[in-house]
Amino acid sequence: YFGQVVEVLRKSENVNVETLLEPLEKIVKYTPGDKSKREELALAYVEAHRLQDAIKEYENLTNSAIEEKNLEEALSYCKQMQKLEPLRLDTMRKMVEIYSLKGESELKAEVLQQMAWLLVCMSDYEAAAKIIEESASTGASDLGSLLLLANIYRKSGKTEDLSKLLLRLAATAVKQQDIGLAERFLNELARMDCNDERFFDLKSKLERLKTLLKEADRMPVIERPRLSDRIKIVRPSSQQEEGEKEPTREESEEK
């Protein structure tokens, strides 16, 4: 019956969206599984500038799509909600759930980082820290998120948590041979009077790494230019004397 009412109203001249809302609401109430009518109701709410009601309908559609394991469709409904309210945390949480089900850890981490920054802007540091910690526990966090977490720990006075995080960041930097970042994290730990054994171990590893890299810079490099059988020895600039000539192939072979 209500469906017929909607069709009649749509064919009528000068009908406004408010007139369509009541029968559409009745249809959705009595046939909640009718996806197309729920979508139609959501669009009608948008047209009537009732955005929160529209978001509620899109959220119901999202949950139904997730239950049906239609994750792409669920994600499309989330994007409709974001168009209506871009900074809505509940929508972001739903997207995190969907990306987890899809196994897309990078996209999940991206949304979690957006949530964390939003919460920091709202001065809700504790909630922001929990979100980044959740991301870190699954291995989906990036350096930017972890640096943000470190800053939250500083502002919150969580010295122990900050120390653990800086040790983790320093270990990663040493492993990746990023001397600048490693020194940055270890220097902050030194200012905190860190006495953890891992701190001293990382300092030793960093010093060995710096020594190895200095030695590598002093080693000559042997090159064979393309389309030539001549061998050229390129010495580091620190070892080349003014006016010194590069050895020829014959001189290199004699040596």
Offer a concise description of the structure.
By secondary structure, the chain is mainly α. About 70% of the residues lie in helices and about 0% in strands.
Write the layout of secondary structure elements.
Elements (H helix, E strand, L loop, with lengths): L1 H10 L5 H14 L4 H13 L3 H17 L3 H14 L4 H14 L2 H17 L3 H13 L5 H14 L2 H17 L3 H13 L5 H22 L2 E3 L8 E3 L14 H6 L1
Antiparallel strand pairs: 1-2
Q: Could you explain the architecture of this structure?
A:
The chain is mainly α. It is about 70% helix and about 0% strand. The protein is built from 13 helices and 2 strands; from the N terminus they run H-H-H-H-H-H-H-H-H-H-H-H-E-E-H. Strands 1-2 form a two-stranded antiparallel ribbon.
Cα distance spanning the termini: 100 Å
Biggest β-sheet: strands ordered side by side in the sheet: 1-2
H/E series, N to C? Answer: HHHHHHHHHHHHEEH
The biggest sheet amounts to:
2 strands, antiparallel
Q: Which percent band covers the strand fraction? A: under 5%
In total, the number of strands is 2
